[in-house]
Write a structure and sequence with these properties.
alpha+beta; eight-stranded mixed sheet; about 45% helix; elongated
Length: about 400
């Protein structure tokens, strides 16, 4: 008789279990289940008990359909000890049996554990911890590495480690510190939380960004449903420029330089520099006054969505208007949320996905460079692994998908 028992978990059982786990992730929560419910998606919560204690669990989501057959995904799960091969094999076999009855032909997992430890430059560190043994166990059990990763495999993380925000700030790269100080002291940008009714404004900025950079944006309904499902575990921030505040400071600076110039008789290098600076200030005043006349006093610059769950604050989604990039709205949003993470005893600030890590000419490498300025480290996860339930249907679906891709191109 097996020492393990496979069961369907209640929401309460699932919540209580994942809250105690180091691997916990917002994709494996009752909040995410609520999001799927709002979308009308088929979900299940399965688990394994030993001595009446839950020791493994997973939120299963219907990802797609092929004819009447179903593909399920366990995003960032299972939540369990992957070094326990016996348990891994048990939960895999029982999930196979469970989903086969639901007319599934395949399911995927992408565990929330690292593949190997890396530094800020994505280099494998000396004496790095790894989970290559887990990969070997997955293969022996019958999984194979998926060709693509639906969920994030490469992330960028900043450990808080009980440091204050002042201590964390000192670890940032010099250019990042300079930019943040500029947004605080010079532009005096305002960061505020968007209400549910203001999410169309959030979507407007992210759409502008996705159109410009050529990637697919989430729908407004997605952001609204995430807000409904995660409630106080999600927040939407916006960075705004108050033209009047900025103009007031510019005019004070202008007067200061005028006074300095008037006090210098004749001409010297210092006076010439003051005159040059005054010219720059006058030009900036003209630009901001024009901006105010055309767009209004409050100018939205950047926005970002954050998930506040477990041990980390996750920077999940964002956007910025290209024409206002010189105000660095995204930097000050990050800084405000890093301070929040420090002040509220989070263990990590997760900048989340990075792409083109090793391709310096890739279109998304700049995002990685931006995140590196905060001096964290690259976290490479295991990636997605596939377990086939119905080989015949799986092969058919793959062949059709390949043919569609060829025809499309």
């Amino acid at each position: 008789m097996s020492k393990y028992k496979f069961i369907e978990l209640t929401d309460e059982q699932f919540f209580d279990f994942v809250e105690t786990q180091d691997q916990k992730h917002f994709m494996q929560t009752t909040y995410m289940k609520e999001y799927y419910k709002l979308k009308g998606k088929e979900t299940y919560i399965i688990g394994v008990e030993s001595d009446k204690k839950v020791i493994a669990a997973g939120l299963i989501y219907l990802e797609s359909m092929y004819r009447q057959y179903k593909k399920f995904a366990i995003y960032k799960g299972f939540i369990m000890d992957y070094n326990n091969k016996e348990l891994l094999e048990f939960i895999t076999n029982k999930t196979y049996e469970f989903l086969k009855e639901k007319n599934a032909y395949v399911f995927t997992i992408d565990p929330n554990i690292i593949q190997v430890e890396r530094d800020t430059e994505a280099n494998i560190i000396e004496n790095a911890k790894d989970n290559y043994d887990v990969i070997e166990s997955l293969k022996q059990i019958g999984y194979f590495k998926s060709d693509t990763n639906i969920q994030i495999k490469w992330t960028y993380v900043l450990d808080i480690n009980n440091q204050t925000s002042e201590e964390i700030f000192k670890t940032f790269k010099q250019n990042t510190r300079n930019i943040i100080n500029r947004t605080i002291n010079k532009y005096k940008l305002n960061i505020r939380t968007l209400s549910y009714d203001e999410l169309p404004q959030f979507k407007k900025i992210t759409k502008d960004t996705s159109d410009r950079r050529g990637f697919s944006d989430k729908s407004l309904e997605y952001y609204q449903n995430m807000s409904k499902a995660f409630k106080d575990k999600v927040t939407f921030k916006i960075a705004e420029l108050n033209c009047d505040v900025y103009l007031n400071d510019l005019n004070k600076e202008k007067l200061d330089y005028q006074n300095k110039i008037e006090k210098i008789n004749g001409t010297n290098k210092k006076k010439e520099n003051y005159i040059q600076e005054l010219g720059y200030i006058n030009k900036k005043i003209e630009e901001v006054e024009k901006l105010k006349n055309e767009k209004g006093n409050i100018i939205p610059l950047s926005c970002a969505m954050f998930i506040l769950y477990g041990d980390e604050v996750v920077y999940f989604s964002s956007g910025s208007y290209k024409e206002y990039m010189q105000y660095y709205g995204q930097y000050i949003i990050q800084w405000e949320m890093i301070k929040y993470a420090c002040d509220n005893n989070y263990k990590r600030y997760n900048f989340y996905g990075i792409m083109d890590v090793f391709d310096t000419k890739g279109k998304d490498h700049g995002v990685y460079e931006f995140k590196k300025g905060f001096n964290g480290y690259v976290k490479e996860l295991l990636g997605e692994y596939t377990y086939v339930i119905n080989k015949k249907i799986y092969k058919q679906e793959n062949l059709i998908a390949k043919l569609k891709k060829i025809i499309k191109h």
